[in-house]
Amino acid sequence: MSGPAVVRPDAGSAPGQVPPARGGHLHREMLTFAAIGVGGAAVDMAALALAMEGAGANFYVGRLVSYFCAATFTWYMNRVFTFRSRGKPGAVWQWLSFLAANGVGGAVNYGTSSAVVAGGPFLLPAALSPLLPLLPYAAVAAGSLAGMTFNFVASKWLVFRHR
Fold first, then answer.
1. Are 112 and 106 in contact (CB under 8 A)?
2. What does the CA dihedral 20, 23, 24, 25 come to, rounded to 10 degrees?
3. Mean pLDDT, 10 residues at a time, over the chain (163 residues)?
4. What does DSSP assign to residue 80?
């Protein structure tokens, strides 16, 4: 004899199959946004290296230049891949909207990276002092992570929303 029927959340799935994820579209967008963010961090680091090593800029000026380059890269990639099904106004208007909407995340990014560079030499153990030249790039990574969540929400709901 069997007990009362129980409605399972995975009802309709074949035995042994994983049921479809709830919010799968949102998860895809988040993962794509994060992957593009990693590419953006690489662009950020490369542009920072060019600004500092090639043009002789200090870290803070170099970060302004590198952030602008990375933000432009991530806007384009998110326009093409992450939010591709969304309404697409003119590219210049959308790019400016992206920069404005992600301004708070950009400020968090810049502030975090500046704090890491300013405090890093004092907090880095002496044994790791040979890694000090890599501190600006670790700062970019920390800043990117700090600003990413805000930027996803701003991009999804302000820049790339359905029209």
1. no
2. 140
3. 46 46 70 92 95 95 94 93 74 89 89 93 85 91 88 84 65
4. I
- Where is 47: in which H helix or E strand? helix 24-49
Provide the domain count of the chain: 1
| Predicted pLDDT at 150 | 84
Domain residues for the domain of 53 are 24-159
**Chain mean position to CA 97:** 16
Handedness of CA 131, 136, 140, 145 (dihedral sign): positive
- 9 within a domain of the structure (yes/no): no
Q: In which residue are the tokens 């400016």 written?
A: 96
For the whole model, what pTM was predicted? 0.71
Per the domain annotation, does 4 fall within a domain? no
The dihedral sign for the CA sequence 110, 117, 40, 48: positive
Pairwise CA distance, residues 145 & 109, whole Å:
8
